Amino acid sequence: MIQAPIWPEQCMSATDRLIPWLLGIGSLGLLATVYLALVEAPPMGENAGFTAPEAYRILFIHVPFAWVSFTGFALLFGGSLAWYLRRSEIGWRLGVTGARLGLLYSLGVLISGPIWGAAEWGTPWDFSDVRLNTFAVLAGVALFVALGERNSEDTAEIRDSLSAVGIFGFGLVPLTYMATRWWQERHPGPVIGGGEDSGVDPFILQIWLIGAASMQILFIGQTLMTMRLLRMENEVEEMLTILEA
Is 70 exceeded by the pLDDT of residue 39? Predict the structure, then answer.
């Protein structure tokens, strides 16, 4: 087991106090998003081009899940890089946190997306669509790192290997983001910054942004909580090592 520096108690107590607030505000915001999506969001007109126009309401959760999942992958990349280059213990914890939360939010994408696809396309998945497949591989990277960290001995070699996977796997993020611009298949194109044909009703955009902001706040709270749990796990392991000596 690798020895880890202990965070200053005053720093930890400050972040500890933030966690319930962030989790609470984020959760309330998501509840508001669900209400707005189901009750207040305007119905899609017959000319909107949707086969199942009412099914679009699940996208108010699906899109924020996707946006915030990229934050998790960014943490995985940054933390893995910090460990690989500087042997930063906090960087390692950040990478593990990014893998776990990236996986969590990816599951949100991979559950909500096929539900919409089954209603709109008649099939939950299209294996010819580049974005769908690259995102699935990206989720697989997070799963590999999260399970590898959980089920392997905590050694520098294991950390190096998992960090390398996290670093190189991050290359799928820009590929996934640009996929609908380069290879437009079934997945809808970007609604923000996607060109002349992109755009969305202002009220629909507001609901999306409320959902994304709420989920991001929740993500920050989960990040702080996970980092705290990882620190506590390390302290318990150190105490057990001392007792067994």
Answer: yes
